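Record type: monomer structure entry
Structure origin: computed from sequence
Chain ID: A
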Amino acid sequence: MLKRLLPLALCAALGTTVCLQASADEASVKKALETKLGTKITSVTKSPYLGLYEVYAEGQIVYTDEKQSVIIAGTLIDGKTMKNHTAERMHKLMAIKFSDLPLEYAVKQVRGDGRRVMATFEDPNCGYCKKLAREAVKLDNVTIYTFLLPILSPDSLEKSNQIWCSADRAKAWNDWMQDGRAPTGKGDCDTTAVQKTVELGRRLNINGTPTLFFADGDRIPGAVPIAQIEQKLAANAK
């Protein structure tokens, strides 16, 4: 509730006209840039620096001025705090609502009481994903939803379909990722879930595997130490 009220309070303090003008400016910048760049822009927000607008599209941030006379692709560092403003904004913009994930399309594994949850997007031929699978056996009291995202090769799609069509998907996944035992499923069942995951990966701008999501919506791309995953799970369980 507080988060919803803050923008209203700010508008009351600054005046409705100021707020409406800011929204209009952001809308005009968005419309103009979509025409120039030929791509759909997710959001345009006035940044607190140099009058620049933050433009978020296709999982990336660029900056421009009110007249779009320049388009800046790079990182903004706050000169006073030396914090990476762009990285902080990307962290927020790339977060999701965990409950929006179509978990029925994922391979589900429950360990212990399963009270802690995470989701991963992985390619069966991804070396970093195999490392993650071997390390993840150390996690307990967790439910892991693994979305099969075959983006590396045609064989990735074949293996994803075989794993999905296995009688025990979690076992087939672990046998392959942890021990190198190839899946024996024929891959001729309904593999809509794999196709839908590929589409979901595009919508979420997932460009590499593994990509991890946690209960608070935070995204961590790439291979990370198991200690960091455990820390994140513990924080969300509080």
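Annotation 1: The chain has two domains: 2-93, 98-237.
Annotation 2: The helical segments are 2-14, 16-37, 85-93, 127-136, 154-164, 169-179, 192-203, 226-237.
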